[in-house]
Amino acid sequence: MSYADSRRDYAAHVWAHLRKDLLLEWRRKEAINGMLFFSLLVVVVFALAFDPTAYPSIARQISGGLMCVAVLFAAMSALNQSWARETQNGVLDAHRLGPAPLSALFVGKALANFLLMTAVELVLALVFAVFYNLHPLGEAWKLLLILPLGTWALVVNGTFFAALSLRTRNRETLLPLVLLPVSIPALLAMIQATTAVLTGEFEPGLWIKLLVGYGVVFTTVCVLLFETILGAD
Amino acid sequence: MVTETYIVNEKNTSGAGRSGWGLLGLTLAVLAVGFYEAMTAPTEATMGNLQRVFYYHFPQVILSFVFPYLNLGASLLYLWWRGRNHDRALAADAFALASAEVTVLYATVGLATGMLWGRAAWGIWWTWDPRLTTYLLLWLLYVSYLLLREFSAAGQTGVVSAVLAIFAAVDIPICYMSIRWWRTQHPAPVFGGGADSGIDPGMYAAVWWNLAGWAMWGAFVLGLRYAIERRRQRRNEDDALGFLSEAEGAR
User: Fold this and answer.
1) Are B45 and B52 in contact (CB under 8 A)?
2) Model-level pTM?
3) A175 close to B (CB below 8 A)
4) Across the interface, do A182 and B156 touch by the CB < 8 Å criterion?
5) CA–CA dist A25, A44 (Å, integer)
6) How far is B26 from chain A (nearest CA, A)?
7) Which of A232, B42, B179, B250 could potentially form a cystine with B202 if both were Cys, beta carbons 3.0 to 4.6 Å apart?
């Protein structure tokens, strides 16, 4: 098989996994409903800590960070579930036996999680803008670059670590414990870039570059190591 | 049968045990000299006796940057040997565990001595300056590594933790850069701009003796922890074999 053929083959596998995950989610809507309601609750609960409409400049300074944290917490609640459905009826072992490249399974699932998270974020951004009375002072279009990049950085590692903690005891507790320390640079860059756009006080360029770099590095590491952790026992 | 093998194992390691005790004695002697040097070194001009914390803070921090590399090396070796040489893979895994624990130990002491110093010199226990923040992240990463080992399923601990070790090693330089950018973009705290580089030559002896002593102490604790972990692995294997032969006998 030629190189171009094998590449097309790989893309077909990724597409099959992506389609399957989105279809399952479309039929049950478990993850997305949970995440949406959870992030709405985060918006309400954080409003108790300070009055966002009375102090617009404080609201601008911290709501970027609040939103990223809400997204991260919502993601952690959904990521474990996205692998849990693969463990039923020994599906995961079947994947391991099959001839398809295992990393295609990972890439497909990470993309599916990414699309779900992006949908949640679009809603969440609107909710934040309304409830916290936000008017970005910087260039708002840059958010269209920052949010997907930041989400991918969180989701690619999150999907990987969810697979890693799949067969551990109390995996619900374990996922945040391993995911958060590794994700701190991405989270920091995402928060700083969003804050830069909202306050207009500094340029987000540096942070966007960091997000790109982080995404490239960790996507590579995840794809390379995925087969190792799936065949861990 | 199980106990017999256990005793044989103990005999095998007794040579290493003797040299281990020798290393401990030598380490304690070097640390004693280090203590003497630290207490008799010239008193620092502005900070006075308080500066003597430095002779302990500096070696601990420097060494806590060395052990993570050992952890990464052992983790890579583990992944390499896993399907090829079972015993070597187990040894690499034990070494990775030991070096991660020593990393957390030294980083904890480094953080604690740093905070003591900060409280006395700057009046605050903690500040989010680049070095302190990056160092705290290093500590967090290796604590999460140990937690993962704790939680993971018995047969998987090695692989899962070796993979996390690779992630941690990749993450540290990115952390370092990002936090540097973060804290320089915002107004930085005024203090801690670095002493006018260098120390009084009279202080060198205290620094080097303590660095050597704590490096040896680290090597000793690491070796001891490694030996204990190896012994635990052997006992586990013996237990498993024992159960197997019992099951055979019952059939």
Assistant:
1) no
2) 0.85
3) no
4) no
5) 26
6) 38
7) B42
Amino acid at B137: L
C-beta separation of A159 from A71 below 8 A: no
Amino acid, res. B211:
L
- Counted domains in chain A: 1
Chain A positions touching B143 (Cβ under 8 A) are 181
Q: Which two tokens stand for residue A48?
A: 């108790």
φ, ψ dihedrals at B48, nearest 5°: 70, -145
The answer to whether A212 contacts chain B (CB < 8 Å) is no
Query: How far is residue A117's CA from residue A100's CA, in Å, rounded to a whole number?
Result: 27
Cα A186–Cα A189–Cα A195 angle in degrees, nearest 5: 140
Q: Please give the C-alpha separations between residue A188 and each of A53, A57, A69, B181, in angstroms, as whole numbers.
A: 25, 20, 10, 11
Find residues 69-108 of chain B whose CB sits inside 8 Å of chain A: 79
Please give, rounded to a whole number of angstroms, the shortest distance from the CA of A163 to a CA of chain B: 10
Q: Measured between alpha carbons, how far is A48 from A56 in angstroms, rounded to an integer?
A: 15
Option in B160, B181, B182 nearest A232 (CB):
B160
- CB contact (8 A) between residue B175 and residue A214: no
What was the ipTM of the complex prediction?
0.84
Domain ranges, residue A211:
3-230
Q: A185: which chain B residues are within 8 Å (Cβ-Cβ)?
A: 171, 174-175, 178-179
Output the six-digit token pair for A119.
Answer: 């949908």
> In which band, very low, low, confident or very high, does the pLDDT at A19 lie, cut at 50, 70 and 90?
very high
Q: CB of A188 within 8 A of CB of B178?
A: yes
d(CA A192, CA B186): 11
Q: What is the pLDDT of residue A7?
A: 78
**Average pLDDT of B96-124?**
90
- Can you point out the beta strands (E) in chain B? none
B167 touches chain A (CB under 8 A): yes
Burial readout A108-147 (b: 16 or more C-beta within 10 A, e: otherwise): bbbbbbbbbbeebbeebbebbeebbebebebeeebbeebb
